[in-house]
Specification:
Elements lengths: L1 H28 L6 H8 L2 E7 L2 H14 L6 E7 L2 H14 L6 E5 H8 L10 H6 L8 H4 L4 E2 L2 E2 L8 E7 H6 L9 H14 L15 H9 L16 H16 L10 H8 L5 E4 L1 H11 L7 E4 L12 E2 L3 E5 L6 H12 L2 H11 L26 H8 L12 H17 L5 H24 L1
Helix pairs in contact: 1-4, 3-15, 10-11, 17-18
Length: about 450
């Protein structure tokens, strides 16, 4: 622990020097375009610099920029792509140094909390711009704004409507006479037992994560809880959090109708040989992952709302995402914020990402376009868009925190993994994780005060 805080102190001390140096090298090495400063001086244009960690993430933004330039011909963007860890680390260094930031940055949900620990997070608040055009209510907040909101400030926007659905192999479930739709988690367990029994133990309805928090989070969020309360404090021992982990434990160890998540290629193989009959997740999982990793399974899959904890429960959750943020330390923070809000609130702009990656948008107005509600052959010609449209308003509001990294790590390390390896009870495991989270937060707070 001491080593960790020493490293943090060192980074704070070195931030001003390292960030400025790194950014100078970065602009020269990673882009064939002139640097933003040079281009602006020579042409009079406003040339923004954008940092990202995925070329696929920015393909739609490049097309959106071309559309934006029809009314803003003096604005252009230099795009810089770096590895995930390196990009977020360099960006944090510029924030700590209060100099050298790009104008725009893609900030992934798991990395966002690191910026909230700074006295000044380094982002431009987008609230006033969104309010001025009445756009806050036009976005599906749990995916568009909640992940990048802290202390009432919306610091980033996400275009990916990461609504979670239950994706099932309809052929396998039909073969074993499984009743559909499955509306509650109690029914899910009963049908899981039936499938395991009728298949002679060869097929499980769904696996459960033992080394990650994804399915625990989705079930818990659907029930109205999560990692944090509205003040950013951990709530791992909420009634719903414990109930969610107990459910997965019982499925694997007590009632024995499921298994823990297979690792790597074994998981792909299990979906391919139909020994795992379904997936719970957002579109980047049931659409992106499955369609890319298992293209030969086209037509096998269909989707429905998540099972509910209660008959009148939500039936939806969200997981993942990346927010586009305007940096206060950039050369053109106001122009960067203008573009970010425009591209996320203009229907013709967000449709580009659907055509590129089958990403359904967080902008409600965009859904009037027929592209989003066409039958999809991969999902047995189901109208997936209409189902997503039905599910999106059901996602509960949730809260981020400066301590996202510490709490999610403790939730897995001391909570989910020990319970799902049958080393301790789910309730005790989450109590251990909660206590560790509170301890880490207290140490972080004391270190910050010192």
């Amino acid at each position: 622990m001491q080593q960790r805080f020493q490293r943090r102190a060192f980074l704070k001390g070195m931030g001003a020097i390292a960030a400025t140096t790194a950014v100078g090298i970065l602009s020269t090495a990673c882009s064939s375009s002139p640097s933003p400063g040079e281009s602006s001086r020579s042409t009079g244009k406003i040339i923004l610099e954008e940092w990202n960690f995925s070329e696929t993430r920015i393909a739609w933004q490049k097309k959106a920029l071309q559309l934006y330039q029809k009314t803003h011909p003096n604005v252009d963007i230099t795009w810089v792509t770096l590895p995930y860890g390196e990009m977020h680390e360099k960006l944090l260094m510029t924030v700590m140094a209060r100099t050298g930031s790009p104008d725009i940055a893609d900030v992934e949900i798991s990395a966002f909390s690191r910026f909230l620990k700074q006295k000044e997070p380094g982002f431009v608040s987008l609230n006033s711009r969104l309010q001025a055009i009445g756009a806050i209510d036009k976005l599906y907040g749990p995916s568009a704004t909640d992940p990048w909101t802290w202390a009432g400030n919306i610091y980033g926007l996400g275009n990916e409507l990461n609504v979670c659905l239950w994706c099932y192999n309809w052929q396998t479930l039909q073969q074993y006479n499984i009743n559909l739709p499955i509306t509650t988690w109690d029914q899910f367990a009963e049908e899981g037992k039936a499938l395991y029994s009728r298949s002679g133990g060869k097929v499980v309805l769904m696996d459960f994560m033992d080394l990650g928090w994804g399915d625990w989070w989705m079930r818990t969020l659907e029930g109205g809880a999560g990692f944090f309360d509205s003040k950013g404090q951990p709530i791992l021992t909420s009634e719903m959090g414990i109930k969610s982990l107990q459910y997965a434990y019982d499925a694997v160890y007590k009632d024995k109708w499921s298994i823990t998540h297979p690792v790597g290629n074994a998981y792909n193989a299990a979906l391919l040989d139909k020994s795992i009959a379904s997936i719970l997740g957002p579109s980047w999982q049931f659409s992106g992952f499955v369609r890319q990793a298992l293209p030969n399974t086209s037509g096998w899959w269909m989707l429905q709302l998540m099972p509910r904890w209660t008959p009148n429960g939500g039936g939806a959750a969200t997981w993942g995402g990346t927010g586009v943020c305007a940096m206060r330390g950039g050369r053109y923070p106001e122009q960067a914020a203008d573009f970010i809000v425009w591209e996320h609130t203009t229907p013709d702009a967000v449709i580009f990402d659907f055509k590129e990656r089958n990403v359904w948008p967080t902008l409600k107005d965009a859904w009037s376009a027929p592209d989003f509600t066409q039958p999809i052959p991969f999902f047995n010609n189901q109208n997936v868009g209409k189902l997503i449209q039905q599910a999106a308003p059901l996602i509960p509001k949730w809260y981020n925190s400066p301590y996202w990294a510490e709490v999610t790590d403790a939730a897995v390390r001391l909570g989910i993994t020990p319970a799902m390896h049958n080393l301790t009870s789910p309730e005790q495991a989450l109590r251990d994780a909660q206590n560790n989270s509170l301890y880490l937060i207290s140490v972080e707070s004391a270190n910050g005060a010192a």
